[in-house]
Amino acid sequence: MSAKTMDKTMSHADKSKTPTRRDFLILTAGAVGAVGTAAAVWPFIDSMNPSADVLAQSTTDVDLSAIEAGQAITVMWQGKPVFIRHRTPEEINAAEQTPMSELIDPQSDEARVKKGKAQWLVVVGICTHLGCVPNGQKPTQDRGKYGGWLCPCHGSLYDTSGRVRRGPAPLNLLVPPYTFLSDTSIRIGAEEKANA
Length: 196
Ligand code: FES
Description:
Radius of gyration: 29 Å
Bound molecules: FE2/S2 (inorganic) cluster
Strand content: 15-25%
Number of helices: 4
Largest sheet: 3 strands, antiparallel
Mean pLDDT: 80
Helix content: 25-40%
Low-confidence stretches: 1-17, 23-48
């Protein structure tokens, strides 16, 4: 190969490897596009995170006086359904007597209710599998073998303490923070441990 031909070949090869001004412009536009998207999305995401002040105010007060033993109501708290059940002595007994060895997510009934208020069970009504709302709030609905709730989506069963007894749900229904304002009223969302 002559020196002239070699020069020509090199110059072709270099040209194909060296980014052109057009490539540079395209790359720059891509980078600006990505930053622009992130900048536009951030205020939206940020607006979905309420401040601590707003969260602290997000409480729901509930009057329990009209709920008779065996009945349950659903209230909304921070956009989530919360089940409040006035348990019968039989339901309390069943929850208290269940051996820990039979539980998928072992937790005593005592740890899920307030001291001296075992007749009141308060749980977030969202199945811990994929988030469906379990049936069992209305007496006409099938509550399943353990007398609590039955998830219509994939058949998880919860007992009278809201503990999962048959999966696929892996965890018990969540007990939200709440406190008794009087013997017959509670505040859901108040900063207090579930069993305080
Ligand atoms: Fe409840 Fe799947 S969402 S069992």
